[in-house]
Amino acid sequence: MSGSLNWTAHHAAAGCDFFRERIRDPDAIHTLDDLRKLPLTTKEELREAYPFGWTCVALDQVVRIHASSGTTGRRIVASYTLKDLADWADMFARCYEFAGVTPADRVQITPGYGLWTAGIGFQAGVERLGAMSVPTGPGNLDLQFEMMLDFSSTVICATSSFGLLMAEEAAKRGLTDRLALRVAILGSERWGDAMRQRIEELLQVETFDIYGFTELYGPGTGIDCGRHEGIHYWDDYYVVEVIDPVSGRVLPAGEEGELVVTSLRKEAQPLVRYRTHDISRVFPEPCGCGSKYPRIARLTGRSDDMFKVRGVQVYPAMVDTALGRIEGTGSEYQVLLTREEGRDRMLVRVEVESATAKEVGERLRAALGVRPDVEVVPVGTLPRTDRKTKRVFDERV
Ligand SMILES: [Zn+2]
After folding, report:
1. What φ, ψ does residue 266 adopt, rounded to 5°?
2. Which of 119-123, 134-138, 303-307, 361-365 has the weakest average pLDDT?
3. N or C: fewer beta carbons within 10 Å in the chain?
4. Rounded to whole angstroms, how far apart are CA atoms 336 and 323?
5. pLDDT tens digit string along 284-326?
6. Using CA atoms, how far apart are residues 48 and 70, in angstroms rounded to an integer?
7. How many CA atoms lie within 13 A of 271 on its CB side?
């Protein structure tokens, strides 16, 4: 009888001490209101439970593990039963369907394979859908274009950074018209509208923003539809609450805050009120596409990547949203934070075609409420990567 809050509460409490301590009375958990009685789960707690402390099935039921990259501290381990993997593939196939991908498509998969959840998640979804997968993995632009041309790939899956790199390189090599690509499914990092527009123009594709994270299966737990007004998420597999990231209070419908996720069917590792650090909001109204699946807004950022300049809170999304509205700027930028003579200095280095530093500085000041120094550089100057792009460099002690 999987697929409900009550099932998850019972399954988690029965499965391991980690959840038994948090869910004293699983019988009392049926609705979202009931869920608020339970404590939030943090990333740090999952880290401390390394490797199998929050696994709720016998380990001989676990058929695969993945792990987060572990760039900050210990890795978080994700474990899966056979049914978890089937559920993940079903969700991922649904993502492809939302992006208009059909069994006739050829899907080139550039995210990495291995401990990371991405590559194999994209692949399982393609196979479940019945399309052809072309598993190239990351990097190696020559190989990417060889496969795109020889196999006539119609769909490309990538981090948004690598999507941009491939789009610019295709244009540079004069390949765009020879490619059969029509759809790009991009994710694993937050990316702005300016970047989206540039990839779509250069690669002649429609882009889709895919959502997911290791602790909740991996990528493939949500995606935007053809209207591109927010990301549909699969509420038959998990529920979303939005909280104030500072107080932990649940916010009213439609307000922006940190997404908190509780899984409904996950066997090996259920999530119970898990703090994602992703900043977004849940749309109260249904999507114009007619889908029954609810939507979150594209991510504004992460509660842990917000930075303060002279007391003002800034999310990277505020920078790229402002830049996206200025005529003559590219999509790429860096923010360098230093302290000089006891005062914060914020330098924004931005790629431009025609905009001036003065113009960019004034627009950023209006959008952020703090005046940055601006350095303009030609498009193509800032680093491109096949993984995720680091844009904020905080050198203040
Ligand atoms: Zn829709």
Report:
1. -65, 125
2. 303-307
3. C
4. 16
5. 999 999 999 999 998 887 777 788 898 888 888 888 888 888 8
6. 13
7. 29
Cα 360 to ligand 1 centroid, rounded to whole Å: 34
Report pLDDT digits (tens) over 361-371. 999 999 998 99
Q: What is the pLDDT of residue 71?
A: 58
**Residue 256 Cα, ligand 1 centroid: separation in angstroms?**
19
CA of 224 to the centre of ligand 1 (A): 7
User: Which residue stretches of 185-310 are H helix?
Assistant: 193-203
Distance (Å, whole) CA 189 – CA 175: 26
Rg of the chain over all Cα atoms, to the nearest angstrom: 22
CA of 223 from ligand 1 middle (Å) equals 9
Ligand 1 centroid to 241 CA: how many Å? 20
What residue spans define the domains of the chain?
A: 82-302, 307-394
Are the C-beta atoms of residues 381 and 349 closer than 8 Å to each other? no
Give the distance (Å) from ligand 1 centre to CA of residue 209: 12
CA-to-CA distance for 309 and 344, rounded, in angstroms? 6
Domain 307-394 adopts which CATH fold? GMP Synthetase; Chain A, domain 3 (3.30.300)
Whole-number Å distance, alpha carbon 314 to ligand 1 midpoint, is 29
Cα 98 to middle of ligand 1, angstroms: 8
* Angle (nearest 5°) at CA 185 between 180 and 186: 125
Among the ranges given (9-18, 174-183, 339-348), the one the predictor scored with the smallest mean pLDDT: 339-348
What does pTM read for this prediction? 0.88
Q: Looking at residue 1, what is its pLDDT? A: 44
Return the amino acid letter for 177: D
CATH 1.20.120.1200 fits 82-302, yes or no: no
